[in-house]
């Protein structure tokens, strides 16, 4: 049985690629040095896979920023606004300009739009297509990586490409009158050229990623799938096509997938578990099956006994020769290596044996294949019994259960947990109390994390500075932030979240039942990586988490300071969550812990509390069938943590990066008094959906794209607000950036926020009447 994984992490085991790219951007590293660092990283990944005994090793799954953007560059889909840069820029700088935007005297170009990669927390750059879109074979990255892999000594490099149908579906139409799939005939010749080049250079294995096959598709799209792969196979009958589907089962597309002329079909056997029997019985004689048995999205050790059961069944119906063992999807979504976690570190020693990171998952893939051999080696037997013992220990661990938590969640499960008064009543009370101007200006929470702050934190963690010194350092940053916000004219202030490295990790550190890793980095976008916590047991709150800093910040000003919490669904979505009970149960436990925090803040006089839920949209099941149930518990979890406050307390929530169209109902039901969203990069387009459903509560469409170092002008932001007014009633609108500012620099943030407040003030002067704000409409 052959083994492989659809892809491997690429940010660097110690985030080496992040550092290399950021040094390159800062002008401290030249292109040759960056390329050398990239080659080192690629080779390290190939070595690890080879050593772990993967028969096929992926290439072209590496990227300096984003693999979708790499495809766009390869296929010549570079939007016109970047053309002026071409004559001055190297290919590499042009690539980064598209990823990050570019601003210098004489040039000012926005970045490509970014959005979430299916239901993961990885973000890709959205291809932009025009009606007359021209494609051409413009970058040989895939071939170059194939050759590098071969030169390194990989026997069978498997070139990974996003399949043509998924590539188009990932993109967005710029302009009206066409659908992006209409472009398929123009696109295919370029794929032919890429494949030709690969084959010419000796590449035999091709992995086409077609994750859209696990989403709801219409018959027309299925037809396109059939045409496309028939066409490609016709031209390259001698290449081995491996069609990779992941993030779910094939559902209604199962027959379509089985009808495609590909040599191997890869399926997600973790999330598509229930359709495996059907798949085994219907697999056409000429098709091999790659079984993604090892979860590429979570870090729990494989349940080897279950996997072996599936493999046994598969061998019976298909035969060993036609089977491959793999991970459910690319391992991009899990950290590099559990062995990087120090003993006695933040990850409790008793949790470690229950986990597998990318490196360990390769071993699991290998083990499953080895255990299916006719003669099983002693090593494999030992590994098996070790696995079984570890999962037994986990199952019976007392660390998983907290009876008090179970009793409380149980009691709430029989209650109505939302707010008691309707929004219009709360709105009256709140505007009377808060007396905010029209178009109130605020920020989303975090402020720049400076080198000084990072150093302070590092020294505190290593014991080089005392807790007092650390806290007084953070206090003075909060005080500076409050004074700056007052002087710039913001209406609702934030404390800046200086005490948090990460909005989820911070809560993980303070809640029981959640552990966090020392080095478990996972790429979020570009050079940005996060360390998802590990929710292993029942969740509860011992002491208040955010109360101290919030109350301190509020003591410095007469303006309202928002309390700032991360919502239950986001904590779940951005963590690795225990897989031994339904997500819903874990969500309610987290929500209850947060409810206690919300009530403590309210009691301490904090009148505005923001509960961030940027993770809600990405948790949405990819297939429509599962959505209602998910949204039901997601909304309930939000209601549980926010619903206990008095009508005078204003609840905000924040979300970013998404189309909100298919969750609008849920947003209305969440019933936050104020919702702030990401809209700057997408030109307020999403507001049409809010207008269409007559979104009742207040809404802050982001007017400052915080994922780019650009400083938008007053006019630019004012124009965005005017656009927002086409969709929303003026008394509904808040003025704010797209998201938190922690990744930005003060040099960008100060002028940008200054411009933002000016834009708000300018528009206020022209609002016909402010009276409507207080009276409501
Ligand atoms: N309050 C958080 C911050 O400002 C929100 C971040 C997010 O939405 N991702 O950093
Ligand atoms: Zn955000």
Overall description:
The chain is of the alpha/beta class and about 775 residues long. It folds into 2 domains: about 1-395, TIM Barrel (Alpha-Beta Barrel); about 430-775, TIM Barrel (Alpha-Beta Barrel), CATH 3.20.20. The protein is built from 28 helices and 24 strands. Strands 1-14-13-12-11-10-8-2 form an 8-stranded parallel beta sheet. A 5-stranded parallel beta sheet has the order 19-21-22-23-24. A hairpin with a 2-residue loop joins strand 16 and strand 17. The longest helix is centred in the middle third of the chain and has 22 residues, at about 465-490. It is globular and about 75 Å long. The protein starts with a strand and ends with a helix. The structure holds glutamine and zinc ion. Zinc ion (ZN) binds near residues 444, 614, 656, 739 and 740.
What is the secondary structure topology, with strand pairs?
Blueprint: E1 2-3, H1 16-25, H2 31-51, E2 57-59, H3 67-74, H4 83-86, H5 91-100, E3 102-104, E4 107-109, E5 114-116, E6 123-125, E7 128-129, H6 141-152, E8 157-162, H7 164-170, E9 172-173, H8 184-200, E10 205-209, H9 219-235, E11 240-244, H10 254-259, E12 264-268, H11 276-282, E13 288-294, H12 304-318, E14 323-327, H13 358-371, H14 378-395, H15 403-412, H16 423-434, H17 451-461, H18 467-488, H19 505-510, E15 511-515, E16 522-525, E17 528-530, E18 534-541, H20 547-555, E19 562-566, H21 568-573, E20 576-577, H22 583-603, E21 608-612, H23 627-642, E22 650-654, H24 664-670, E23 674-677, H25 687-692, E24 698-701, H26 714-727, H27 746-766, H28 771-775
Parallel strand pairs: 1-14, 2-8, 7-9, 8-10, 10-11, 11-12, 12-13, 13-14, 18-20, 19-21, 21-22, 22-23, 23-24
Antiparallel strand pairs: 3-4, 5-6, 15-18, 16-17
The structure holds glutamine and zinc ion.
